[in-house]
Amino acid sequence: MKPIVAVVGRPNVGKSTLVNRIAQTSDAIVHESRGVTRDRSYYDADWCGHEFTLVDTGGIEPMKSEDIFSASIRDQALAAAEEADVILFVVDGSVGVTEEDESVARMIKRAKKPTFLLVNKLDNPDREQERLWEFYSLGVGDPIAVSALHGHGTGDLLDDVVALLPESYEDEKIDDGILSVAIIGRPNAGKSSLFNKILGSDRSIVSNVAGTTRDAIDTVIERGDKKYRLVDTAGIRKKSTVYENIEYYSMVRGLRAIDRADVALLVIDSSTGMTEQDQKVANLAIERGCAIVVLLNKWDLLPDDHAREQMMETVERRMGMAKWANYLRISALTGRSVEKIWALVDSAAQNRSARISTSKLNQLLTDMREFGHTIVDGRRRLRMHYVTQTGTNPPAFTFFVNHTDLINDSYRRYIENRMRATFDFKGTPIRLRFRKKD
Ligand code: GDP
Ligand code: GDP
């Protein structure tokens, strides 16, 4: 688990510009799984060996369109402050202090978290120092001049941010051999209902286990001779705070749970269709190496075949990056198909831990060579010498090739498809790496 740095502020101050800048400055991890949406609201970043997750609260869509805009900004700020380890509060130096800035500042102060007040759009920092003074009135500490656009000040800022981060929470991952399952999804998708249905089943023996991380509570259920750990169920069990229904909160909660999970149950509200936010949550799980089972919940609410077909169409469109996932139509309310979840969890977890022998892998490579599909750029022609499995959970493979720069997205996709057609990776992401070898 990585510490979370939240970027907070009213719209248009330059939050996403800053997030992109930091992602470029620091060695933001280039994800190996494809299909990542362009519009990112979070990044895994690494500055001088300190890893953290940077979250742009502005990139998260407001829950309801009827939300009053400023109320939603304030809620996002509140939720961000609650969940973050460090807060980057961005204001616009070319405009000065606004009422909305003051409202965000009040929320942040309550949280008592390390906060940096970044006065953005000071593109000529030497000449604009006096602009900083008025921002002292916000009462959240010394204003720091930055220009997200030009990058002034971001390197120093990162030094100061990582100095305040807690150590990574990695050692908190428990290794007792019990399969860890996270229930994730947007607010209102039906996570709590599903959780209660699972706990209420005659076939589940339930025990609560002591919190392992900060405020996390896990629930272990026994089904026959198998055990499953439902991770970070505190927020699902009992909606304890007013933040539970905030998109940002569910995303950060999701991130924390995903980091400790082997398999993610992605709960979708079929009555509202699959949204961009669902897609983002799915990407979070995939990028972090979780197997996923997609639960199309509230299936009972779809009135007719037309509605059901439409739902499946949006699912196919939105989940193009994970055609390999298993889908289950359920109703957490009636219990429909809820018992079927476990077989899919088991098979996804099994495929996630698969080991493929080197000889089988290289047989595939030989077949691909004979098939003749390769990449040619001028006089250079891609040659793949050999491939080995370099990791499990999820399965990772390294291909040794003559020119790594020839590998493009479509070729990656082609190789992944061939791998999946040959071996059973249903339900799990796989990682492909390419290394140079002449
Ligand atoms: P957000 O709504 O807070 O995420 O703001 P954006 O990142 O979308 O930026 C809003 C506008 O401010 C965009 O037109 C940016 O190009 C501009 N902007 C952001 N940072 C800077 C900066 O450092 N200097 C200047 N001059 N413009 C900036
Ligand atoms: P969470 O925010 O993801 O934990 O969602 P909840 O479990 O609180 O559910 C949100 C609302 O959807 C509640 O009113 C539930 O009763 C309702 N709900 C959940 N699952 C289903 C379902 O399968 N069918 C129907 N009709 N309603 C459901």
UniProtKB/TrEMBL annotation:
Protein source organism: Collinsella acetigenes
PROSITE patterns in the record: G_ENGA
Keywords, in A-Z order: GTP-binding, Nucleotide-binding, Repeat, Ribosome biogenesis
Residues the entry annotates as binding GTP 1: 9-16, 56-60, 120-123
Ranges annotated as spanning the membrane: none
GO terms classed as biological process: ribosome biogenesis
Gene name, Swiss-Prot/TrEMBL: der
Protein name per its UniProtKB record: GTPase Der
GO terms assigned for molecular function: GTP binding; ribosome binding
HAMAP family linked: GTPase_Der (MF_00195)
Subunit structure, interactors included: Associates with the 50S ribosomal subunit.
All copies of domain EngA-type G, residue ranges: 3-169, 179-353
Residues annotated for GTP 2 binding in this entry: 185-192, 232-236, 297-300
Domain of life: Bacteria
Function of the protein: GTPase that plays an essential role in the late steps of ribosome biogenesis.
Record-stated family: Belongs to the TRAFAC class TrmE-Era-EngA-EngB-Septin-like GTPase superfamily. EngA (Der) GTPase family.
CDD domains: EngA1, EngA2
